[in-house]
Model the fold of this input.
Amino acid sequence: MSRTLLGALIALFGTPVAAEDALLGETLANTCAGCHGTMGVPAVPYIPPLAGLTNEEFIRAMEAYQDGTRQATMMNRIAPAFSDEEIKAMADYFAALPRPDVTRSTIRNRPGN
Amino acid sequence: MKTNRRDFLSILAANVAMTGLASGVRAQTGAAPRVVVIGGGTGGCTAAKYLKIENPNLHVTVVEPNRQIYRCWGSNEVITGHISIDDITETHDALRDRYGIDFIYDRAIAADPVARTFTLAGGDVLSYDRAVVSVGVDFKMDAVEGYDQAAADGPIPHAYKAGEQTLRLKSQIEAMPEGGTMVIVPPPNPYRCPPGPYERASLVAEYFLWANPTGKVLILDLKDKFTKDQPFMLGWNRLYGFNIPMEKMSGMPADVRTYDTPGRIEWVSGSNGGRVVSMDPGNMELTIEAGETIRADVINYIPPQRANTFAFDMDLTDGDWCPIDAETMESTRHPGIHLIGDMTIAGAMPKSGYSANTQAKIAAAQIARLLSGETLIEPTWSNACFSRVSNQYGVSIADQYRLDRENNTIVKTPGAGGISSLNATHQVNRMEAFYQAAWMENFEADVFE
Done:
């Protein structure tokens, strides 16, 4: 990769996180993508984007799903699967991605139709 | 430094689509390693896409017989008319245009795992450095006396590979006489989409509410339990007059009712003689282990399954399915060929589209590292699956999976995962139906866009 391109990416996404951390974060985050979208960017926002969440936002949400202070349909079952270290790694991965603007609102077979 | 570079490439992959930088990136390196993906369905498409996200320099070619494919997830909603066949029809255009993946519309007929080549029906020979095979399942057509391929092609569609089969079952259900009976015969484990037959029963029962109010769905099962069976049965009790068997009552909430007459769904378990022992397609009759012969207006017999015939032809199977090295998803029979999706023996993971999708991502990540000589990742997988009990009532299962290195298998992460709570409020059931619809959009994009 050219230095210019590398420079541009650092400018866009900030200083790279520790390599090991990023690797683990990316692997774990890919398991979220089937619902939350590729690299945390969904097609429709009802299952919300994870890309661009701050570390604090992501960690706070996952901890609240773990201890039940935040009630969801599925996330209370998923969040307990991860250690603090893994949640931090995912948080770093998503925080390094730009926050998307997901505006598409059409979904097929919306309940009630 | 190397790892940093790849992290940036991962981020870059999303951007090449938007900025058209792909050719510039590719020019940075010499000969691109070649990865051939056999199968352009859920697993194969995800693998091809994530290979390019891992490393845009890879030369990725997908071999698939059909320019348009019909995804199975969502096909139950086609049967009952909630969506159309067009909604489950997918092309490979986005993957080709946005990620630079090559598609060859042909059928692989031979593999040479030593020379690392595939021969296609059209005569082409493709060489690869690493390959992914994701060709799904085929059916065992001779498991029940009286049933055969002619029955499947005629009066008794399985509708368990989407497309023409789906539409034939749909028109049969629509043409059912008032007060008729549809029989669903789920297959023995393991099979693709474990909740599929039961979601189908649910949605057909819902369709009957207005289209055929005295119509009935009878499930003749050889099993005593199935995935999400309690949440399904609770929903059936609330919506379709289903009487929950005593052995499924543990943990059920107080609003469960008992109906004097059987409702729109009935389930005969294996222990109660539900196994179908023979069929007469000409007279639309089934005989079950309990001894009874039942006449039905629609029979949806879903045959037992095994890995796709292609996997047998390629010597990738051991028994009915394909053994893999769990860490890399590489065939234990032929190195260099990675196997994902319904055809594999993937430990505790169910044969679902979501499983195939996360398996594809692990295969892609490991292939990229095997080709570059970098350290393998510690793999993790997941499965998340929503089912519609009705248009407005959803249930789900979610699990996270890890590598059990010692036993070379994939295990559930303990202390997490599981099915929807039986104590879920009406609002949560409704939200799960809504999330099912939203998931369908986002999952489709993760696989095909």
About this structure: The two ends of chain B are 30 Å apart (CA to CA). The domain at 5-138+306-375 of chain B is CATH 3.50.50.60 (FAD/NAD(P)-binding domain).
